[in-house]
Structure formats: C-alpha cells, structure tokens
Amino acid sequence: MKVSPEILNLVPYKPGKPIAETQREYGLAQVYKLASNENALGPSPKVIAAIKNALDEQHRYPDPSCYELIQKISKVWNLPAKNIGIGNGSNELIDLLIRIYSEPGAGILTSQAAFVAYHVCAQASRVNPYHVPLTSGMKMDVKALVDYFNTHAKESRIQLVFIPNPNNPTGTYLNSEDIRYLLQHLGNREDVLLVFDEAYNEFVRAKDYQPASSFFAQYSNIVILRTFSKVYGMAGLRLGVMVAPEATIDLFNRVRNPFNVNDLAQVAALAAIDDAEYIHASQELVWSGLDFFYQELSRMKLPYIESQANFVLFDTLRDVNKVNEALLRRGIILRPVTNYGFRSHMRMSVGTRVENEAAILALQAVLREVVHLPTN
Ligand SMILES: *Cc1c(COP(=O)(O)O)cnc(C)c1O
User: Fold this and answer.
1) Which of 226, 267, 271, 339 is most buried per CB count within 10 Å?
2) Vertex 170, ends 304 and 278: CA angle to 5°?
3) For 112-138, b where at least 16 C-beta lie within 10 A, e where not — what string?
C-alpha cells in the first residue's frame, strides 16, 4: 500500500508517562504525575452529578448540534450562538480548521515552541508548519509573525495563523498591545484567519492580558479556541469550543463527524460552565501552587519563566533525560520538553499541595545527584 511520507513520518503523540506504567517499571507504590496540565481538583461534584443523571440515556445518539450547550455558552460568555462550534476537545477544532483551510502542500504559521498540536495536525494534513523565532523572553514575536506573513503567505499558501495565548509549554502570553498590533496588521483581512488558542485564559493573572473575545465583534477574521480540559477539569470527557465567523462555523459543521461530541461531555459542560465555585477553587489552587513553585525554584537557583497557565517551564541546568530518570525513580512524573527543542528544561504542572511538595522534595534530591551542565 502507498502511504504518503508526511503520514509515515508522524510520531505518535507521547503523553505524560502513565502513573500505572511508572509504578510497574520502578516498583513504586506512590507515584505523582504533574505532566499533563490537568486540573488537580478532580471533576466538579456538579459534573459528576450531571453525568450520573444522564447515564440512563446513553443508548441514544448525542445531540449532533449541541443545541443546549451552545445556547448556554452564548449566554454565559456573551457571544452570539451562531458563532459557536463545539469539538471533541480543541484538538479536533485545530485539526479541522487546518483541513478546511489548508490544501496539501500549503502552510500554517505559528511561533517556535508553540503548542505542538498545530504542527502535528498540519503534518497529518500534509500541510507545512512555519515558525517564527521567539523573543528573548520566550514570548511570541508578533512583529516577526506579521513580517513573515506579509512576506511569505502568498508563496507558502498560508491562511491560518495560530496564536496560543497563553502558550504551552512556555506559559508566556501576549498582552493587549501585542494583540492590537496583530489585529492592526492582519485584522479584517480576507486572506487570513487569526486563531487565538486560549486554553489557559482563566489562569492568567497578568493585568495587561486581554482575551480575543473582546475584539471579536470588530474583526471579521478572528477565531477563538477554548477548552473544558483545563479550568473546568474535564480533560477526559473531551470538549472544546470554537468562536468563529459564521462562514467558518458553517464549513466546520460540514466536515466534522455528526456525533463528534458525546452526550456525557455535553451534559457535563452544561453543568461546568457556570460552576463559579469550582472555577474559583481551580484558580486558587493553580495560583498558590505557582507561587510555591516560584519560591522553591528560586531557592534551588533554577531559572523559570513566570507562567500565565497552570504549569511552569523551568531550566534544570542539567541533562534533562538524567533528571527525568532520577525523578521517575522517586515516583515523580514531570514533562521534559525536548520535543520543543529545549535540552535542559522541564514543564511542571500544578498539582495538589501534597503533589507539589512531593515534586519539589524529589527535585531537590535529584539536583544533588545529577551533575550541573558546564556553563559557558
Ligand atoms: C491543553 C491545551 C489545549 C486543550 O486541548 P483539548 O484538546 O481541548 O484537551 C489546547 N491548546 C493548548 C495550548 C493546550 O495546552
């Protein structure tokens, strides 16, 4: 059988190492995983109740239009229902946007060290991902992005620009001035869609952050992606939201699978979206956890990037594979990010207080064990 090289060269997604596998391999009873940016609170009691209540109906197909959920999102987020589409996680939305707007051999544009899904989904559609370098603070370089687009979009057939804000795995963000710069140069154009991926937007503490939704009414080419995997604690249920021009929603509804979002996910999201108590608890947990990490990383003299998300990227100043191996032996799963081109960095998600403290204790021990890389 003939299979295209882009498909053959795809590397299967490597999730954070599973807890059970780590327990088996290292003979450990207790393993903590802070590797996948999940919500450490566990599901909201309201979500659990809603799911239990819906179990009797699971012999039925789900609502293919997600009608009730779209109405509620529209109300709670104050955005027109006709501009909302629901996906099987935002990952599906990324995948379908690329399939809709990029022919094989065409391109998408994002930044270096941007969320890896853009790259993977592009390659699976035989589309070339183009990246502009980060600024010195590991921030997305909006000027470079605009310059690159204006110079290369035609020849490289780029119609989509992906802007993760805040970004994973760096935790950095674009402020309202950056967003305005992007919109001033690329807004209201018919040859490009600006896709703002705001998976972590509820965790942002920076005062000068402005979500793209506040510009949505004035610009014809903004797409916003949100997810229920992070602050809403529903990563296992798979539900993402797209806010987009009507024409995009219309195309999306043609290409997606009719039952892309299962019934339990819809029911759970309806219960989760205005669960203020749970959202606040999630925010508090993440913010206090990040502050604890900053304090301890500073004590260990490990450089880190201040994060607007629910994880922190830090530099171990050591061979990250050795650090990772030593942490695993102690039952701590963090995420090395060599796949993003970082040789000595790790990403550490905020967990519960107990998990955070265990991770820091293990890290302190491991730093004494693994030699420092030569500085130059
Ligand atoms: C976690 C994450 C998502 C969410 O993906 P889902 O498919 O909705 O679980 C989207 N974008 C970024 C940048 C993320 O880190």
Assistant:
1) 226
2) 95
3) ebbbbbbbbbbbebebbbbbbebeeeb
Q: Which of the listed residues 168, 228, 231 should we mutate to test ligand 1's pocket, taking the one with most ligand atoms within 8 A of CB?
A: 168
Question: Of 276, 278, 228, nearest to 69 (Cα)?
Answer: 228
Q: Which of 293, 265, 309, 311 is nearest to 16 (CA)?
A: 311
Strands 240-243 and 222-227: antiparallel
Tell me which amino acid residue 28 is: L
Whole-angstrom Cα distance, residue 122 to residue 117?
8
Ligand 1 pocket (Cβ < 6 Å) reads 37, 89-91, 115, 164, 168, 197, 199, 227, 229-230, 235, 240
| Residue pLDDT, tens place only, 233-263 | 999 999 999 999 999 999 999 999 999 999 9
Q: What is the pTM of this model?
A: 0.96
310 Cα: distance to centroid of ligand 1 (angstroms): 12
